[in-house]
Amino acid sequence: DAYDNCITVCNMENLDPLGIHTGESIVVAPSQTLSNKEYNMLRTTAINVIRHFGIIGECNIQYALNPNSEEYYIIEVNARLSRSSALASKATGYPLAYVAAKLALGIHLPDIHNSVTGKTTACFEPSLDYCVVKIPRWDLGKFHRVSTKIGSSMKSVGEVMAIGRKFEEAFQKALRMVDENINGFDPYVKVPNDEELEKPTDKRMFVLAASIKAGYTIDRLYELTKIDRWFLHKMKNIIDYYVVLENTDHTKLSHDVLLRAKWIGFSDKQIAAAVKSSELAVRIQRQESNIRPL
């Protein structure tokens, strides 16, 4: 604000490596793979930058960070409400646009009430006990002679945001929202293809699912995709549980098996497909086991 109060509202991380536009990348909030030292280093730099420029209002900064060292570059500084700001606002429940408008009028940050919580002031940093995943939506199939490769130019026409207690849950929810014909992180949508892993397309996540199911190691997938191993391990958790469900008789679905499936984001329809049952039968069984959404 005009009185030098400054807070950081949200830190987000691109799942895809540098070279893929943020609008084309899966984004996770809060960041999952930064150490405490790296996080505070980037946070301190962000506050120093905004104070140096004398920005009053909202600003977001994008970094490129070397995962093997603490070397980083500032890619861009957006002293405006961008699409990333809208995502940060929805992910945290912090009304960025409302607060930025008040700051432009010269009001102190501690004097502004958070219109979402109704109890706190705007001068606090949100703390998340959940995971948010944003996935872009492409409609490249509607266009002829358009490359399906994704990179530094933005081709996505929209995006979805999912919230879950775990990355796996939010990730699978988001995949289902992007395309109603998809059940989640499904290993049977595409086939393993090293070229598609190395040179990403709009369907790379499903090639990744198929590759994990086919037995690719985490290290090999990391070399091909440069997606952080933490995310690859989480994706492997989903595929491993697919195998567990596929080896489970639908008449022997226990409470624990269903509960674990729900924890990592499996829908009733997805469970039914894996155990060769019907969605209705799985839903009835789940309700009888008293496993319900909060």
TrEMBL record:
It comes from the Eukaryota. Belongs to the CarB family. One of its GO terms (cellular component) is cytosol. The keyword Transferase does not apply. Pathway: Amino-acid biosynthesis; L-arginine biosynthesis; carbamoyl phosphate from bicarbonate: step 1/1. GO terms for biological process: 'de novo' pyrimidine nucleobase biosynthetic process; citrulline biosynthetic process; glutamine metabolic process; L-arginine biosynthetic process; UTP biosynthetic process. This is Conserved ATPase domain protein. Residues 42-105 form the ATP-grasp domain. Transmembrane segments: none annotated. It holds the Pfam family CPSase_L_D2.
